[in-house]
Specification:
This protein has 373 residues and is an alpha/beta fold. It is 25% helix and 25% strand. Bound molecules: flavin-adenine dinucleotide (FAD). Flavin-adenine dinucleotide (FAD) binds next to α5.
Length: 373
């Protein structure tokens, strides 16, 4: 393996018996005019974060534009609004949080507007305009200019696999390295790979996906460490669980969205229910929306999305476990979840969704609904 010292430029070769590739992901940075202007920031590394803080410390203007509305863009919008900035989010997607179905993304959209954030969806940035001092002054789209003293980019990442590609290692359709269950690169006895540079098996759809999350990278590290050290361990795959927030709004998802289920050739029903975080009569109960997808005929749980306030986000873990266990929505209805008024209604919102999904699946199969009190 050849390496170059980035300070001195000196190159050296190192031989290996076993190689681990953990090159992570590269933030997408489109080649648009003004992208390198002062005041334009990505937030991939700690250095990026410090550079943004330095810009905020020396900038007197108070207008921030965030480009992209995935979880990083949404969290950056929160960070800027909490610092007292006027925040505009420009987003190519129909709604923020493309990891949700658009009807659930719409709830996030409304909540962000409620926080005073200006949301511009369905809009592509065409360039960044700079002032005489070379600093960014506006974000341009096809029909408008959004004044900006600082711009934060959150437009996604791609697997960093330039090195792997050059070495001829196998890459998947999403550009990530392909490994077997032991995280060994397919077809290579002594090379392992993990983290944001690999594709993972989606246990619900059976397809490979690229999901850049620390929760997977950490597990990959443990599996690879065990195998490289002569032990034996495997990574089973993922169900696609993710949780994030914007101010007090919690956003969570696991499993398949409608478009993922279509892509996988699955037929399904969806239900969406409104419930509350605590018993309705208990102080500070807050509304929560749960959307659930279940496979036609089998009733297998396919996915859950949750948007709500305190206590909404981590509820998705119930569904993550049910997905991993391959449960049907009907089986979920009898899960013995904890209940007391400060924590949930008698029927947890996830179970309410499972009941409604069960009724719908049974109706489409021409079977009566089970009797449930
Ligand atoms: C702002 C932000 C917030 C996040 N929040 C969450 C969260 O809440 N939950 C969650 O699960 N995940 C989160 N993540 C994602 C998480 O940080 C990543 O999934 C995780 O860090 C990936 O680990 P990794 O080891 O694969 O890659 P990285 O941590 O990116 O490490 C890759 C390393 O490889 C080095 N490298 C790359 N190419 C080469 C090369 N050719 N030669 C030598 N070195 C190279 C890089 O310099 C880097 O040090 C967040 C990410 C960001 C940016």
């Amino acid at each position: 393996m050849r390496a170059r010292d980035l300070d001195s430029g000196a190159e050296s070769w190192t031989s290996y018996d076993k190689l681990v590739i953990a090159t992570g992901a590269r933030p997408i940075r489109p080649e648009l005019p003004g992208m390198d202007a002062d005041g334009v920031h990505g937030v991939q590394t700690l250095e990026d974060g410090q550079a943004l803080l330095d810009t905020l410390a020396r900038t007197t203007g108070r207008r921030a534009v965030v480009v992209g509305a995935g979880y990083i863009g949404v969290e950056m919008a929160e960070a800027m609004i909490k610092r007292g900035y006027e925040v505009t989010v420009v987003n190519r997607g129909r709604e923020p949080m493309a990891t949700l179905d658009p009807d659930m993304g719409r709830l996030v959209h409304r909540a962000m507007e409620g926080l005073g954030i200006t949301m511009v969806n369905d809009t592509e940035v065409t360039g960044l305009l700079t002032g005489d001092d070379g600093g960014v002054r506006a974000v341009a789209t096809a029909d408008a200019e959004y004044p900006a003293d600082v711009v934060v980019l959150g437009i996604g990442v791609r697997p960093e696999t330039g090195l792997a590609r050059a070495a001829g290692l196998p890459l998947g359709e999403h550009g990530g390295l392909l490994t077997d269950r032991s995280m060994r690169v397919r077809g290579y006895e002594n090379i392992w790979a993990g983290g944001d540079c690999v594709e993972v098996l989606d246990l619900v759809s059976g397809q490979e996906r690229h999901i850049a999350l620390g929760t997977h990278a950490n597990k990959h590290g443990q599996i690879i460490g065990a195998n490289v050290g002569g032990d034996y361990a495997t990574f089973p795959g993922v169900v696609g669980t993710a949780v994030s927030k914007v101010c007090d709004l919690e956003i969570a998802r696991t499993g398949l969205r409608e478009k993922d289920a279509h892509r996988a050739g699955l037929r399904f029903e969806t239900v969406t229910i409104e419930s509350t975080s605590r018993a309705g009569y208990y102080p500070n109960a807050s509304p929560m929306t749960v959307k659930m997808l279940a496979e036609l005929r089998t009733g297998r749980l396919l996915g859950v999305q949750i948007v709500g306030r305190e206590g909404a986000g981590k509820r998705v873990d119930i569904a993550a476990v049910a997905l991993t266990a391959g449960m049907t929505v009907e089986q979920m209805t009898m899960l013995d979840l904890g209940y007391a008024p400060p924590f949930s209604p008698t029927w947890d919102p996830v179970l309410v969704a499972a009941r409604k999904a069960t009724t719908k699946i049974r109706a489409t199969a021409g079977r009566p609904s089970p009797r449930m009190s």
